[in-house]
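ok so for the tutorial part 2 we go from a plain amino acid sequence to predicted structure tokens. step 1 is just haveing the sequence, like this:
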Amino acid sequence: MSTQVVVLYHSRHGSTRTLARHIARGVESVAGCEALLRTVSEFTDSPHDPVDPILSLEELKHCDGLAMGSPVWFGNMSAPMKHFWDQTTALWVGGDLIDKPACVFTSSSSLHGGQETTQNTMMLPLLHHGMMILGIPYSQPALHTTKHGGTPYGASHVSGHSDSLSPDEITLTQHLGKRLALVATQMKGLSTS
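step 2 — the prediction. this is what the tokens look like for a chain of 193 residues:
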């Protein structure tokens, strides 16, 4: 049975979706791992036709790991992403996400746009659910040299109104996805033994 890692994101202009795709590539670079790209519902009145399916609570309940991404909205996760987590009380009561690994990723239009505070706010519901948070360790060389996105808290991208990631951003994002998949596989092996 494969290890299933949900890559959940909200994206308005495409940058966070691009990061999600690179996280998924990192996840799927690990043998036996499958990335499920999912998004959340928008609040807008206009018809919204998401590129990827909207995540169900049942999919979240049964995942082996989670990568969560949101654009920076005033130093916080987006309202649609926050609204999704506000609907997960039943999973919290059931302890369904306890001891599952998770990581976060974000994008902003400027270097000092609030990436790290946004990553921290995304971690809060994950910690309340008992998930284990993974970041990017400084043993990853690109974390020392990046002039764009990438933090020890998780993957990030400085869009400057471009969806194209820098080579360092791609390296760090895919590394985080791979790390998440490896830990999810190890944890899944422990729970079945």
